[in-house]
Structures are given as structure tokens and as C-alpha cells.
Amino acid sequence: MKKRDILFYLAVFVALAVSAATMAAIGRIDKLEGEVEALTIRVGEQCQRAEAAEASATVSKQIAVKLEETLDQRISEEVEAKIQLAEQVKSGAADKPAWTNAGTFRIYHYCPCYYCCGKRPGDANYGLTATGTVATEGRTVAVDPSVIPLGSEVLINGVAYIAEDTGVTGKTIDLFVMDHAQAAAMGTYTTTVYWR
Length: 196
Prior knowledge:
Elements: H1 3-91, E1 100-110, H2 114-117, E2 140-142, E3 153-156, E4 159-165, E5 172-176, H3 180-186, E6 189-195
Parallel strand pairs: 1-5, 2-4
Antiparallel strand pairs: 1-6, 2-5, 3-4, 3-6
């Protein structure tokens, strides 16, 4: 075999070897591209999860702030109520018993009219309470004696009344006023009531 033929075969062999190496490199590049694409997709999914977690954390923080504000408001209201109660107790005589929390009551208003009390002017006991006193605006309240004893002081929204009348049941109190229009206009509400 001639030297030229050997060189030719050597060149063909080198070309084939380079071609095989190139093909292998292209295969590796294709594989790496696939891995990079899969990695990019995973990174994208993780970013989406991180964004969703961040949004969820933001909402959770907003809820926590709202709950804290609500709790602070309730605490402030309770502290204010206790301060008012302490002032009421302090202003009373030292020998009077402490106020008892009777719970939440529904407050109504009534007057001496026939609609409210079933009596007309001139009727026996018109304007008198169940305890025999003259019903007086700013003093008289009607209670259920099984809940609050008659003759007790009753504290409603910082104002002290006397349990002199009946005609209601359970956790209900009727505040006495002088006329029916005023009683209707004052309506009803609920509040915490104390007695002693």
C-alpha cells in the first residue's frame, strides 16, 4: 500500500472519528437542552408556588391584624365598662354591697297608660308599682323578681334605678317613662345589667 493511500484512509478514519465525536457531542447537547428545559419548568412551578405562598401569607397577616384590632377594641370596651362600674361602686356608700353582674338583658320602656299597664286614670292603683310606690321616671324599673329581687338597685348603662315594678319575665327590664309616645320612641336594646 502506498503512502498516499495510507494518508487517504487515515483522513477518512479521522473524519469518521470526528463525525462520531460530533454526533456524540450533539447527543449530549440535546440531552442537556432537555434537562435545562425540565429544570426551567420546575423552577417556574416553584416560583408560582412561592408567589402563592407569599399571597397566602399576606392574607394571613391581614386577617391577624384585623383579629388583633377587634380584640383590642373588645378589651378597651371591657376595660371602659369596668372603669365605669368601679366609679359607680366608689361613688356609692362604703356599706353598700358590690354590684352583681346579672348578664345581658333586653331593655324596653313603658308608661302608666292602659296599653302598657292595663289601667286608666281613675282606676285603683293607677300609676303605682307592684311594690306600692308611685312609678317615677329616672328611678322605676320593672323586673322579673326571680332574676333581680324587688327593691334592688339596678345599674343600666351607668345609671342606677330601683327595681320597684314587675310584669316582665326572664332577662328583660322595663324602664318607666311618663308617656307612651316617649316609650315607643325610645325602643329596645340589649346591654349588660348589674344589681345590688
